[in-house]
Amino acid sequence: MGTFTALETSKRGLMAHQYALNVTSNNINNVNTAGYSRRTTEMTETTPSSSVQGYVGTGVTADSLRTYREEFFDKEIRSSLARQAGYDTDEKVYEKVEAILAEPTKSGIGEVVHKFLSTFEDVADNPQNLSLRDFVVESAQTLTDRLHATASSLDATRNDVLRDMSADVDSVNKLLSSIAELNKSIENEYASTGTAPQTYVDEREKAIEELAEFTGATITEDDNAQVNVYINGVNVVTGRIASTLRLDKTVNEVSGEITAQVSRVNSTGKVTESVSPTSGSMASQLKSYNSLLDPVDSSSDYSVYTELNEYVSTLAEKINMISVSGYGLNDTGEIPPGRTFFDSSNGEITAANITLNEEIAADSANLTLSDSAGEAGNNVKALEFARVANDTTFNAAGQTHAEVYAGILGKVGTQYSDAQSGVKTMQTVVDQLESQRDSMIGVDLDEEAIDLVKYQKAYEASARVLNTTNEILQTLINLGA
């Protein structure tokens, strides 16, 4: 081996191990960096040179960086994060719904309806007593006020969901743009070096995981190390190009039902395709807005608001059927005045629009407690009102009003419990997956410390070879002198 060849070999050793020390140092410094995947240096022997005696090695080069990121774990974590985010959103919504229904408390709808119907038992004992009649009116007014408050709170919760969804769509658009920009940076580096810069890859994966929490997004990777992103099959990122999403509302002209929808729009704002996430927080929000909290839901999903409105409508209908055929204290004639007990401001009676008949609200004498005119002590209709409490024809299943309302509460409670269990279960799954992934791609300080010493010793050895070769060269020069 020539002396100058030995110098070159030593220099390569110094450069390769200096590079490896830099990589190790970077790993150590990023031990707490979220989403960082550790790297190791792949060393390769350089091309040997031929001599009379045979081939002689020419040293080493830091050929490439090896990363330990695995798409399998990334994919599973993205999927689990999406499901966890969906359960978490469900839990928060159902927690609000339970608080709004206020059960079981004295102010809950079930208890207020029970008290309202029980007042008819009291007034049946003395139907001409105006104080007892006034108490019926007051109980009815308390019931309508409670229903109005419940409807208002459900409407406010629904609007909160829409507001959160709008903010999430903005966040999603930023993530889509970020992923497209990272694709561009990765492609540029890949074209010039043949490898993807791992820093950009890690940043992109972190952005994709955030996107998955919102939308349950999935990806495919092309030959240039770029990714294409899909939301329920709709392509929202293609290489360097990111789509723009928008939250829209549509109104059914017949039923008045308002539905939220996420759409992909072009540069002019025209909708090109509907985007319907199947998991993630936005999927949960859409389901809550379009079904659970929709007062006129037409889907097959469960709607607590629609169920409540049906309950109120049936209760009002049964009370009104009795009321229209009865007489008040001051009513005369053979034909009943046809006075309803409950009215609405428009159309079918719901929790939001139910009101007490103005005539009854103004004068409790107008309560139709008798089945004949001019009979102040007649309590036939009062007893019919009271029997509504035990009427088993409240629905097709042969249940009473209390059982129907208990079914609504039970469904909400079950859904809330399922959401809570889902959050806990998915948190465990995510923790396990992230632990497994971290064991593969995470930085182990003990391992890095060993590498640090190993590369340091190799660097020092190369430096010693360089110094020795330099001394030999000096000796040769001095001999020539």
Short structural description:
This protein has about 475 residues and is of the alpha+beta class. It has helices at about 5-30, 70-100, 110-125, 130-195, 200-215, 280-290, 305-325, 360, 380-385, 400-440, 445-480; strands at about 40-45, 50, 55, 60-65, 220, 225-230, 235-240, 240, 245-250, 260-265, 270-275, 340-345, 355.
Structure description:
- 34% of the residues are buried.
- This protein is α+β, with helices and mostly antiparallel strands.
- 58% of the residues lie in helices and 13% in strands.
- The mean pLDDT is 91.
- It has 2 domains: 3-68 and 444-480, no CATH class; 74-124 and 148-300 and 401-433, no CATH class.
Strand numbers in spatial order across the main sheet: 5-6-7-8
Which structural class should the secondary elements be placed in? alpha+beta
What's the number of domains?
2
Percent in strands: 5-15%
Radius of gyration: 38 Å
Uncertain residue ranges: none
Q: How is the topology of this model organized?
A:
Elements: H1 3-29, E1 39-45, E2 49-51, E3 54-56, E4 60-67, H2 71-101, H3 109-125, H4 130-193, H5 198-215, E5 218-221, E6 227-231, E7 234-238, E8 241-242, E9 244-251, E10 258-265, E11 271-275, H6 281-292, H7 304-323, E12 342-344, E13 354-356, H8 358-362, H9 380-387, H10 401-441, H11 445-480
Antiparallel strand pairs: 1-4, 2-3, 5-6, 6-7, 7-8, 9-10, 10-11, 12-13
Helix pairs in contact: 1-11, 2-4, 2-5, 2-6, 2-10, 3-4, 3-9, 4-5, 4-6, 7-10
